[in-house]
TrEMBL record:
This is Iron-sulfur cluster carrier protein. Keywords: ATP-binding, Hydrolase, Iron, Iron-sulfur, Metal-binding, Nucleotide-binding. Binds and transfers iron-sulfur (Fe-S) clusters to target apoproteins. Can hydrolyze ATP. It holds the Pfam family FeS_assembly_P. In the N-terminal section; belongs to the MIP18 family. In the C-terminal section; belongs to the Mrp/NBP35 ATP-binding proteins family. It comes from Deinococcus aerophilus. ATP binds at residues 99-106. Signal peptide: none annotated. Homodimer. Residues 3-73 form the MIP18 family-like domain. It comes from the Bacteria. SUPFAM superfamilies: Fe-S cluster assembly (FSCA) domain-like, P-loop containing nucleoside triphosphate hydrolases.
Length: 358
C-alpha cells in the first residue's frame, strides 16, 4: 500500500517548481491505516502561495489508490537555503529597493517581513535606510535601544514576531547623520556581520531610495539571494524603477519581482475604484520580471504604520493587507524556485566528478 501511495504522489507536481513532490523530497510521511491515508508534505516555505492547490492535488491523487477512502493532508515547512549561505544561520538575504523615494518602499518591506513571520518563517529586518530610518517607528519600537550581547554583538530588537535593527535605535531621535561613503559601508558591514541575527529563513533589507553607496556595499558584503523593486504605476516612478533594476543586474543580483504600490484606491463610501496614479504600469516591467502584486492605497496601512503595527497583523482582512500577504507569499515562492533550481544545477555540475569509468 505504501508503495502505491508513493507512486501516486509521484504524479503530483509542485506548481511552482514543476517537479514531483517525491523527487523534491517533500513527502515527510505517507501512511495508510484502515483505508485512511495520512500524508505530511514538507513545503519549501511556510509562506507557500499554492499550499491549497498542493493539498487538493495530493488528495485527488491518493484517493485513486485502491483501498484508500480518506486522505488526511498535513504540512510542515523547511526553507531551502541558498547554495552559498549569505551569513552564518541566515538562509536568504532579500533586498527591497526602489528607484526613487515616496513609493512606500519601507511600508512594503515591513509588511513583507511581518507577513512572512505571520506564516511561520523566521524573519529578520534590516533598516539600511541610514539617512531616513522608519522601520523602528512602523514596528512601534522607536524608543527602543540596540544592546550588545555577551559576545559583544548587536542584539536585534524583537517586535511582532521578527527581529530588526535600525539606525533609529542607535542614534538620538531626530539627529541627522552626515556620513560619507566609507562610513556608510562600515555601518552596513556592522549591521550584517556584527549583529546576532541567529537562525533566519529570510533577512529582509529595506534599502534607501536610489542606486547609491548602501546598495553597492550590501552587494559586495554578502551573497544576496535577490531583490524586490517597489514602484508606483506612474511613468516617473517606473523610469527610476528601471534604473534600480539595471543596478541590480550590473551587481549580478536577481530581481525576484515587482511590487506596484498605491496601485489604485477604493472609495470607502461608494466602493468605486480610482486609478490615482494610473494603473498597471508595472506590468511593462513585469514582462521581464514577475509582478508580485498590486497594493491599493488604504488608510489603514498608513494608520497602522503610525500606530506601530503592520497592516498585515492589525487589519489582515482588508484589501491592502491581503494584497501584501499575497505579495509576501509570491516572493517566498520565487525564492524557493531560485533555491531549488540552483541546487539542481549545482548537483548536475558535480555529477561528472561522481561518475567512475569502468
Amino acid at each position: 500500500m505504501h508503495d502505491a501511495v508513493m507512486s501516486a504522489l509521484k504524479t503530483v507536481n509542485d506548481p511552482e517548481l514543476h517537479r514531483d513532490l517525491v523527487s523534491l523530497g517533500m513527502i515527510e510521511r505517507a501512511e495508510v491505516v484502515d483505508g485512511v491515508a495520512q500524508i505530511k508534505v514538507n513545503l519549501t516555505t511556510p509562506a507557500c502561495p499554492l499550499k491549497g492547490q498542493i493539498e487538493e492535488d495530493v488528495r485527488s491523487a491518493v484517493l485513486k489508490v485502491p483501498g484508500v477512502h480518506t486522505v488526511q493532508v498535513s504540512f510542515g515547512a523547511t526553507v531551502r537555503p541558498a547554495a552559498q549561505p549569505a551569513l552564518p544561520g541566515v538562509k536568504h538575504v532579500l533586498l527591497v529597493g526602489s528607484g526613487k523615494g515616496g513609493v512606500g518602499k519601507s511600508s512594503v518591506a515591513v509588511n513583507l517581513a511581518a507577513s512572512l513571520a505571520r506564516d511561520g518563517a523566521r524573519v529578520g529586518l534590516l533598516d539600511a535606510d541610514v539617512y531616513g530610518p522608519s522601520v523602528a517607528h512602523m514596528l512601534g519600537q522607536g524608543a527602543a535601544r540596540v544592546s550588545a550581547n555577551a559576545d559583544r554583538k548587536m542584539q536585534p530588537i524583537e517586535a511582532h514576531g521578527l527581529r530588526f535593527i535600525s539606525m533609529a535605535n542607535l542614534s538620538p531621535a531626530g539627529q541627522a547623520l552626515v556620513w560619507r561613503g566609507p562610513m556608510l559601508h562600515s555601518a552596513v558591514q556592522q549591521f550584517l556581520k556584527d549583529a546576532a541575527w541567529g537562525e533566519l529563513d529570510y533577512l529582509i533589507v529595506d534599502l534607501p531610495p536610489g542606486t547609491g553607496d548602501v546598495q553597492l556595499s550590501l552587494t559586495q558584503t554578502v551573497q544576496v539571494t535577490g531583490a524586490v523593486i517597489v514602484t508606483t504605476p506612474q511613468d516617473v516612478a517606473l523610469i527610476d524603477a528601471a534604473r534600480a533594476i539595471d543596478m541590480f543586474r550590473k551587481a549580478s543580483v536577481p530581481v525576484l519581482g515587482i511590487v506596484e504600490n498605491m496601485s489604485y484606491f477604493v472609495a470607502p463610501d461608494t466602493g468605486n475604484t480610482y486609478d490615482l496614479f494610473g494603473r498597471g504600469g508595472s506590468r511593462k516591467l513585469g514582462e521581464q520580471y514577475p509582478l508580485l502584486g498590486e497594493v491599493p492605497i488604504d488608510l489603514d496601512v498608513r494608520q497602522d504604520a503610525d500606530a506601530g503595527v503592520p497592516a498585515v497583523l492589525a487589519h489582515p482582512q482588508t484589501v491592502a493587507a491581503q494584497a501584501l500577504i499575497s505579495v509576501a507569499r509570491n516572493l517566498a515562492g520565487q525564492v524557493s524556485v531560485l533555491a531549488v533550481n540552483r541546487a539542481l544545477a549545482q548537483s548536475l555540475e558535480e555529477l561528472p566528478d561522481q561518475l567512475t569509468v569502468v
